[in-house]
């Protein structure tokens, strides 16, 4: 879909709060959302799912504030997920490099992120991280 057609399509549905079209590198998907597209956007790269600025109602439904907290200073380290992790970044900036992928996943404050079980990666923390997390 060309940018002009994509913009027309997005504009046509942007006033419908239950239907939002998002695209990422030529992939199109429809995301149900109670918020406008500009305030909450979902992407997936190398199996890592990121929702930028999820609605407060979603965070409340998940019970994010009751999850444990973890933080770290700027650093670079390898990590393997022995279970699925969902986390919500309160502050910080990170580039996550999944093993076997040529793409980095950039996450930061306000992002709700899901890492799949079994994924190995390298975390490159450029700004101190503070996050809530939950393993399943």
UniProtKB/TrEMBL annotation:
(S)-ureidoglycine aminohydrolase cupin domain location: 61-133
CDD domains for the chain: cupin_TM1112-like
InterPro entries: RmlC-like_jellyroll (IPR014710), RmlC_Cupin_sf (IPR011051), UGlyAH_Cupin_dom (IPR008579)
Region listing for Disordered, in residue ranges: 1-39
Biased composition annotated in UniProt, kind: Low complexity: 1-18
Identification of the protein by name: Putative ethanolamine utilization eutQ-like
Originating species: Solanum chacoense
């Amino acid at each position: 879909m060309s940018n002009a057609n994509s913009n027309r399509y997005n504009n046509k549905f942007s006033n419908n709060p239950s239907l939002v079209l998002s695209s990422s590198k030529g992939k199109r998907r429809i995301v149900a959302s109670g918020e406008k597209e500009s305030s909450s956007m979902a992407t997936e790269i190398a199996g890592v799912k990121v929702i930028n600025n999820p609605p407060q109602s979603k965070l409340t439904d998940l019970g994010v504030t009751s999850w444990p907290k973890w933080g770290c200073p700027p650093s670079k380290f390898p990590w393997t997920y022995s279970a699925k992790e969902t986390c919500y970044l309160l502050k910080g900036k990170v580039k996550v490099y999944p093993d076997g992928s040529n793409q980095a996943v950039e996450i930061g404050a306000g992002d709700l992120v899901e890492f799949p079980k079994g994924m190995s990666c390298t975390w490159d923390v450029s700004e101190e991280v503070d996050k809530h997390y939950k393993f399943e």
